[in-house]
């Protein structure tokens, strides 16, 4: 049986657009976990926090949520610096970052979720923008702007992070900090400052990804749990510490979920996505673009 061409093309487009969003969700994990060895399982909590901040500003002032997230990203950056300083002072400096550090981030996840529940309740929230209901059609293929706009901004953010890490001296220090901190010290670079900056950058990307999420779908405080496994899966599939790998892994999982949802039903999508992850790790444990 042949699948209709239009259905296949729409599944490809939807998968790529979804993959762009997954890349935005996962790029921060790629930095904190892949480059800094900081297992920040609270990362989705900052995404949801970004969603609600974008929602509040949009509801009260009418500003575009994605624009709001970009403008307010320095606040998330400062929040990331504060959290890393607490994490470093309480755990990493004492060599207790493995299990106790994990509990620390789980606590942040729990506190953030409970706080948002107390403030907003369990009702789903969604923002309406000027492009939310607009769909461009190119032949038989639909391009919903509520997915296209986050996709474009997400690509710009991911590529910008990659260029920063690969083309600047400080970016290369971030890439090196998890490999040889002694060498950095010999070059008069403070590894703590490097890791603090990089972790703050990862939290800033989470805040921007939160605006993408609330444009794409309704959110409620506990929805962030759904993205914990997915974000780590994208990073592991693409290769830990590889931004291009994160982008590639996001596209692969996005396409897998889109085709599975289109032809077999959405309930099968998570199983197929993680099946691809396990298969990739069986043949390439370092991930697709890992070293």
Account of the protein in words:
The chain has a two-stranded antiparallel sheet with strand order 1-2. It has one domain. It is globular and about 60 Å long. It has helices spanning 5-35, 43-61, 65-90, 99-120, 145-167, 169-177, 181-186, 191-216, 226-238, 243-263, 269-283, and strands spanning 135-138, 141-144. The model has no long low-confidence stretch (mean pLDDT 86). Strand 1 (135-138) and strand 2 (141-144) form a beta hairpin. The protein is mainly alpha-helical and 291 residues long.
Quick synopsis:
This protein is mainly alpha-helical and 291 residues long. It is 73% helix and 3% strand. The chain contains eleven helices and two strands.
Largest beta-sheet characterization: 2 strands, antiparallel
Coarse morphology: globular
Low-confidence stretches: none
| Sheet with the most strands: spatial strand order | 1-2
- Structural class call reads mainly alpha
What value does the Rg take, in angstroms? 19 Å
Mean pLDDT over the residues: 86
Q: Give the N-to-C terminal Cα separation.
A: 41 Å
- Helix share bin: over 70%
How many E strands? 2
Share of residues in strands? under 5%
Order of helices and strands: HHHHEEHHHHHHH
Number of helices: 11
Tally of distinct domains = 1
Strand and helix layout:
Elements: H1 5-35, H2 43-61, H3 65-90, H4 99-120, E1 135-138, E2 141-144, H5 145-167, H6 169-177, H7 181-186, H8 191-216, H9 226-238, H10 243-263, H11 269-283
Antiparallel strand pairs: 1-2
Helix pairs in contact: 1-5, 1-8, 1-9, 1-10, 2-3, 2-4, 2-8, 3-8, 5-6, 5-8, 6-8, 9-10, 9-11, 10-11
């Amino acid at each position: 049986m042949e699948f209709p061409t239009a259905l296949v093309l729409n599944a490809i487009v939807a998968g790529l657009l979804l993959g762009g969003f997954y890349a935005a969700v996962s790029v921060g994990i790629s930095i904190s976990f892949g480059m800094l060895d900081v297992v920040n399982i609270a990362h989705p909590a900052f995404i949801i926090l970004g969603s609600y901040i974008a929602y509040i500003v949009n509801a009260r002032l009418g500003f575009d949520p994605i624009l709001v997230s970009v403008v307010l990203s320095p606040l998330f950056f400062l929040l990331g610096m504060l959290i890393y300083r607490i994490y470093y002072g309480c755990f990493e400096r004492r060599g207790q970052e493995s299990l106790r550090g994990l509990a620390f981030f789980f606590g942040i996840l729990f506190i953030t979720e409970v706080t948002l529940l107390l403030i907003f309740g369990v009702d789903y929230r969604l923002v309406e923008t000027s492009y939310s209901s607009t769909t461009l059609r190119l032949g038989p293929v639909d391009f919903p702007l509520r997915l296209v706009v986050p996709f474009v901004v997400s690509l710009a953010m991911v590529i910008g992070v990659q260029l920063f890490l690969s083309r600047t001296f400080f970016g290369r220090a971030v890439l090196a900090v998890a490999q040889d901190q002694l060498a950095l010290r010999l070059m008069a670079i403070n590894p703590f400052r490097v890791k603090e900056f990089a972790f703050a950058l990862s939290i800033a990307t989470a805040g921007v990804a939160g605006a993408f999420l609330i444009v794409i779908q309704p959110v409620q405080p506990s929805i962030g749990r759904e993205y914990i496994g997915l974000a780590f899966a994208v990073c592991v599939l693409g290769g830990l510490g590889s931004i291009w790998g994160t982008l590639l892994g996001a596209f692969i999982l996005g396409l897998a979920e889109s085709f599975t949802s289109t032809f077999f039903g959405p309930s099968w999508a998570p199983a197929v996505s993680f099946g691809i992850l396990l298969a990739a790790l069986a043949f390439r444990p370092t991930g697709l673009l890992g070293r």
